[in-house]
Amino acid sequence: MDSIVVIDFETTGLSPNQGDRATEIAAVLIRDGQIVDRYQSLMNAGVRIPSYVEALTGISNAMLRKAPPIDRVMGEVSDFVADYPLVAHNASFDRKFWDAELDRIRVKRKQDFICSMLLARRLLPQAPNHQLGTLIALAGLPVTGRYHRALADAEMTANLTLYLEQELMRRFSLPGINHALLGKIQKTPKAQLKQCVERFRHLCVE
DNA sequence: TGCCAGGCCCTCTTTAGGGCCTT
């Protein structure tokens, strides 16, 4: 099983195109089916967090005033992530901010994103919804901290991803999981999941 | 002036609309 990094951003809003900025990031390195390293930091981009987002995340403007500058944090987390494949829950959101913040420090993304929400929609269609908290409860996984804080969400997304990998291995009798297989599955219509796994079974090794 | 995300996915679809999910 190869290494992957799960990331989670907290931000001032939903869209970097509308001026929203990152306020916190966490990155969790998974190797051989276990979390082996973590990075987490608040970051100060010199912008205000709207009060409703402060209430949502528990990250206040006072906390950001004491946080390190965003350029330094993004440089550090970019080094931590290196060229490992990235995972996030609803990855289209984190990818937008990852690309926008790296662009500001003139760093280019080196890898693709895998989305745990798209995988869960395919592998856990019976879930009442596919919010992170619902899936953690459904899978019986531990709540590792406050939801909407970066490290807790990244750790829970990491545990969910490992759970989904186990589910995939069990359901299709796979000897192991390769991130390239996850990348194929997240884009495959539910009805064609079996054919997709069989087509790319050769990617999986013990 | 008023508005302001966007990618994915389902369906009463594909010349579209609307819900989900992330902060």
UniProtKB/TrEMBL annotation:
Keyword Nuclease: yes
Record Gene3D superfamilies: Ribonuclease H-like superfamily/Ribonuclease H (3.30.420.10)
The protein's enzyme class: transferase
Catalytic reaction list: DNA(n) + a 2'-deoxyribonucleoside 5'-triphosphate = DNA(n+1) + diphosphate
E.C. number(s) listed in UniProt: 2.7.7.7
Signal peptide residues on this chain, from the entry's feature table: none
GO cellular component, one term: cytosol
GO MF terms held by the record: 3'-5' exonuclease activity; DNA binding; DNA-directed DNA polymerase activity
Keywords (A to Z) from UniProt: Exonuclease, Hydrolase, Nuclease
Domain of life (superkingdom): Bacteria
Coiled-coil spans in chain: none
Biological process per Gene Ontology, one example term: DNA replication proofreading
Domain Exonuclease: 3-170
Quaternary structure, from the entry: DNA polymerase III contains a core (composed of alpha, epsilon and theta chains) that associates with a tau subunit. This core dimerizes to form the POLIII' complex. PolIII' associates with the gamma complex (composed of gamma, delta, delta', psi and chi chains) and with the beta chain to form the complete DNA polymerase III complex.
Functional description taken from the UniProt entry: DNA polymerase III is a complex, multichain enzyme responsible for most of the replicative synthesis in bacteria. The epsilon subunit contain the editing function and is a proofreading 3'-5' exonuclease.
Protein name: DNA-directed DNA polymerase
Taxonomic lineage from the root: Bacteria, Pseudomonadati, Pseudomonadota, Gammaproteobacteria, Chromatiales
